């Protein structure tokens, strides 16, 4: 034994081994002497001692109780217990017998839980066996072999006394070659509620029936008019298909008095599947979804199931209130997302289910609350928080379970669900033995709670958010049995929240330090909310420029709500992938409106226009954008007479638009120009486009050439003007001389021009100088003559057209 006590994997030293062996030798001497002096031990005594050693742990035979009917027996009923026994030892069990044993009445709820936790312990008290005629025997049970059993015992043979919960055990007795005496080799305990009569005051029981799933819908939609949605996968189709998890939830809940708790995101996703939808594939591929018929069928069943029942709608996407309270409130805008998720509930649920949902309940994960969670939960308008009794513990020493409703201040009510009843259906319920024990445990806890006191109380059961199909089946069996029982009546959640609170019940919200560390480890980190806030900022910028913002506000807004979903707990990496996918898709849409890159531009004059092109690859138009072109060196290159110029931008969907900016070069060299889009509120949109403008031809020689050319144009124009003026004067002189000649001819031969000098005849000058004009005497002034004729053509514009031509580069 000393050697066995050494650490595993080590070996004692030789000296230590010698000391141990010597000690063992000396210790064995008295034992041998006693054996020689005393008579041999009787077989019965040896059997008794061996029996004590054999009864340890779970036993060598596994006993499984797969069914117990009826779960709530009446006085005239026969209880039938069936299952299997399996020899897990190395030796065959002979003379085996399976019998039913009834233990003592369990007086406390904790005693019920203790029996359920240690249901296979052979050391515990299991009570006397019923009459041998209600047993089942096996001549031999070989190793590894399983045998079925079925025991039917009338209720009056079970010796049930006062009302309450009894421990019932199926035990296998037998012997082996190593231990050839009868002993208990295996046992399985279960619970049997006994309440054949109606109780005076029934307990009001509210059972929440959740229709909640994981996140399935992305932010991506098609560019068509219907905005075809895109799902992450086709897992939702499996859940709503016949036999699927959500299909079973609806089929089972339809026949129960429950309060339906729904996530609007689930309803919206299935509703989207009733029309054309796509499913993401490998890479960036998508495939057409083909489960429209299943989606329509499931929604029709839900509509029928909830008719006349209370429907409590959670905020869209079922946001993780605890994660938001602990890690998100310090990130700007996080609480706004919760408010938006609450505001869209009614308009989402009512058109689909045709019932008006209740929206004033918040349901933190596992009902775990602290002051910060309550504050966040009520910030969006909820005034009732569904908590759970394992975190909202009683401190007043009550001997009974109080009603669920607790006023916690500020007009807020905590609806505290009962933890033992709410957690009993967790685990693998695909095994019949586990499911049977869960049903009996639920019935036992419900009856024990009811028998605690004669006070009227309202009890709420809030199971796990997303039960499996087998868990849902077990829940339905247990709830159906309770609703058929004699101590409980159904009540909806709103009525339970308005029930008279117990004055002795705890109303103080647990402190932050009491929040379970196991739940805190699963929370969304602060970085998740920072990413959501960053995506929201980009979305705000994007919607500002769109002609129809609603096409992106709704899908992206709901995707951001899904990014905070409770369903991401335990899947942090997958949650990060989803959020990154939403942001990346939005970045891709933002990049559809951008500036086209430009190469270096050369200017050959002092002024020119520079075009910048804006491209819009979206299906809708963009507006409320401003394009600013900025010169980084305005002393060399001015834009619009300053360092920069801005122009408004409006581009139709699928089009591009070029915008021209006027520039003025003041010196040779290279100037860097930056083109940047801005939103209406002055925020940058997209990446800037930077390019160089090179001015190469503004030199002294060029200026002299330009000046000389201008001077030549001016001189040429002046010369043309003077020539035309001289020609007009000559024509006028010739007309006057012709008229004078006509008068002289009328006076007779030899007549002279009275205006001419004496002794000189009047002659018609021929080819006289063009610069001289004849002097006009008084006789030439004839009022009857017309005035001088005007020039036949107007002067041409002889000035230069400008110092630089505006051209597009």
Layout of secondary structure:
Blueprint lengths: L13 H24 L5 H12 L6 E9 L8 E10 L5 E14 L2 H9 L18 E6 L4 E9 L9 E12 L7 E12 L8 E9 L5 E5 L7 E3 L3 H6 L4 H9 L5 E4 L1 H10 L4 E3 L5 E3 L3 H14 L5 E3 L7 H8 L5 H10 L1 H9 L7 E2 L8 H9 L4 E5 L16 E5 L2 E6 L1 H4 L9 H19 L7 E4 L7 H15 L4 E3 L2 H5 L19 H4 L5 H20 L4 H13 L9 H19 L2 E3 L5 E3 L3 E10 L5 E10 L5 E3 L4 E8 L3 E11 L3 E10 L5 E12 L4 H48 L62
Parallel strand pairs: 8-11, 8-19, 8-20, 10-12, 11-14, 15-16, 16-18, 22-29
Antiparallel strand pairs: 1-2, 2-5, 3-4, 3-6, 6-7, 9-10, 12-13, 17-18, 21-23, 23-27, 24-26, 24-28, 25-27, 28-29
Explain this structure to me?
With 809 residues, the chain is an alpha/beta fold. Among the domains are: 61-194, Coagulation Factor XIII, Chain A, domain 1; 203-210 and 245-272 and 301-500, 7-stranded beta/alpha barrel, CATH 3.20.110.20; 526-591; 594-696, Immunoglobulins (Immunoglobulin-like). The protein is built from 20 helices and 29 strands. α8 packs across α11 (371-379), α13 (432-450) runs parallel beside α14 (469-483) and α17 (526-545) packs parallel to α19 (572-590). The radius of gyration is 50 Å and the shape is elongated. The protein starts with 13 loop residues before the first helix and ends in a 62-residue tail after the last helix. The model is unreliable at 1-56 and 750-809 (pLDDT under 50).
Features:
Coagulation Factor XIII, Chain A, domain 1, 809 residues, five-stranded parallel β-sheet, 7-stranded beta/alpha barrel, alpha/beta, disordered C terminus, disordered N terminus, DUF6049, elongated, 33% helix, 20 helices, transmembrane, transmembrane helix, 29 strands
């Amino acid at each position: 034994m000393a050697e066995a006590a050494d650490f595993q994997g080590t070996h004692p030293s030789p000296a230590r081994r010698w000391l141990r062996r010597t000690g063992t030798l000396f210790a064995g001497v008295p034992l041998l002497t006693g054996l020689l002096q005393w008579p041999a031990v009787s077989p019965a005594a040896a059997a008794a001692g061996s029996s004590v050693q054999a009864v340890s742990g779970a036993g060598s035979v596994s006993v499984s109780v797969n069914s117990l009917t009826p779960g709530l027996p009446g006085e005239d009923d026969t209880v039938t217990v069936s299952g299997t026994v399996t020899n897990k030892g190395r030796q065959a069990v002979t003379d085996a017998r399976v019998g039913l044993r009834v233990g003592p009445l369990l007086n406390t709820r904790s005693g019920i839980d203790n029996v359920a936790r240690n249901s296979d312990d052979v050391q515990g008290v299991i009570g006397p066996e019923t009459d041998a005629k209600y047993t089942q025997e096996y001549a031999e049970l070989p190793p590894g072999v399983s045998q079925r059993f079925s025991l039917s015992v009338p209720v009056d043979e079970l010796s049930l006394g006062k009302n309450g919960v009894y421990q019932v055990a199926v035990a296998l007795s037998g012997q082996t070659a190593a231990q050839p005496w009868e002993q208990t080799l295996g046992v399985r305990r279960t619970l049997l509620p006994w309440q054949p009569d109606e109780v005076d005051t029934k307990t009001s029981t509210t059972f929440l029936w959740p229709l909640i799933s994981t996140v399935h819908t992305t932010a991506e939609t098609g560019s068509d008019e219907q905005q075809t949605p895109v799902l992450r996968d086709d897992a939702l189709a499996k859940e709503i298909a016949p036999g699927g998890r959500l299909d079973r939830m609806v089929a089972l809940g339809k026949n129960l008095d429950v309060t339906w708790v729904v996530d609007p995101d689930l309803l919206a996703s299935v509703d989207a599947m009733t029309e054309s939808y796509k499913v993401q594939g490998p890479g960036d591929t998508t495939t057409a979804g083909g489960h429209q018929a299943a989606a329509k069928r499931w929604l029709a069943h839900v509509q029928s199931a909830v008719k006349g029942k209370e429907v409590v709608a959670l905020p869209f996407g079922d946001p993780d209130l605890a994660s938001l309270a602990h890690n998100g409130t310090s990130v700007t805008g996080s609480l706004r997302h919760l408010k938006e998720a609450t505001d869209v509930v009614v308009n989402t649920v009512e058109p689909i289910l045709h019932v008006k949902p209740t929206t004033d309940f918040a349901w933190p994960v596992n009902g775990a609350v602290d002051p910060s969670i309550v504050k966040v939960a009520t910030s969006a308008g909820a005034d009732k928080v569904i908590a759970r009794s394992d975190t909202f513990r009683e401190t007043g020493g009550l001997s009974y379970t109080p009603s669920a409703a607790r006023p916690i201040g500020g007009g807020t009510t905590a609806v505290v669900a009962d933890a033992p009843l709410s957690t009993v259906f967790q685990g693998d319920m695909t095994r019949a033995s586990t499911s049977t024990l869960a049903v009996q445990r639920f019935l036992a806890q419900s009856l024990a709670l009811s028998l605690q006191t004669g006070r009227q109380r309202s009890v709420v059961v809030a199971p796990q958010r997303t039960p499996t199909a087998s868990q849902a089946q077990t829940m339905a069996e247990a709830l159906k049995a309770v609703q058929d029982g004699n101590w409980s009546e159904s009540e909806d959640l709103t009525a339970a929240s308005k029930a008279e609170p117990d004055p002795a019940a705890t109303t103080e919200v647990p402190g932050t330090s009491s929040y379970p560390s196991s739940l805190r480890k699963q929370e969304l980190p602060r970085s998740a909310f920072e990413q959501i806030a960053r995506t929201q900022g980009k979305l705000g910028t994007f919607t500002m420029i769109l002609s129809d913002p609603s096409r992106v506000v709704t899908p992206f807004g709901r995707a951001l709500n899904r990014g905070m979903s409770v369903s991401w707990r335990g899947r942090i990496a997958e949650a990060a992938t989803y959020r990154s996918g939403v942001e990346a898709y939005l970045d891709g849409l933002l990049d559809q409106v951008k500036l086209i890159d430009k190469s270096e531009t050369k200017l050959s004059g002092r002024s020119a226009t520079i075009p910048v092109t804006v491209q819009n690859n979206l299906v809708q138009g963009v507006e409320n954008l401003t394009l600013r072109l900025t010169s980084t060196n305005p002393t060399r290159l001015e834009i619009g007479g300053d360092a920069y110029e801005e122009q408004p931008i409006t581009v139709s969907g699928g089009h591009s638009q070029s915008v021209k900016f006027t520039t003025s070069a003041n010196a040779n060299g290279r100037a860097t120009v930056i083109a940047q889009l801005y939103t209406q509120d002055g925020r940058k949109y997209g990446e800037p486009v930077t390019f160089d403008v090179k001015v190469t031809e503004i030199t002294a020689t060029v200026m002299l050439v330009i000046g000389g050319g201008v001077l030549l144009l001016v001189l040429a124009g002046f010369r043309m003007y003077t020539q035309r003026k001289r020609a007009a004067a000559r024509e006028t002189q010739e007309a006057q001389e012709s008229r004078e000649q006509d008068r002289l001819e009328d006076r007779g031969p030899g007549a002279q021009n009275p205006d001419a000098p004496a002794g000189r005849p009047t002659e018609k000058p021929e080819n006289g100088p063009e610069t001289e004009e004849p002097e006009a005497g008084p006789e030439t002034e004839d009022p009857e003559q017309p005035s001088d004729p005007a020039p036949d053509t107007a002067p041409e514009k002889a000035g230069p057209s400008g110092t630089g031509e505006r051209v597009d580069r």
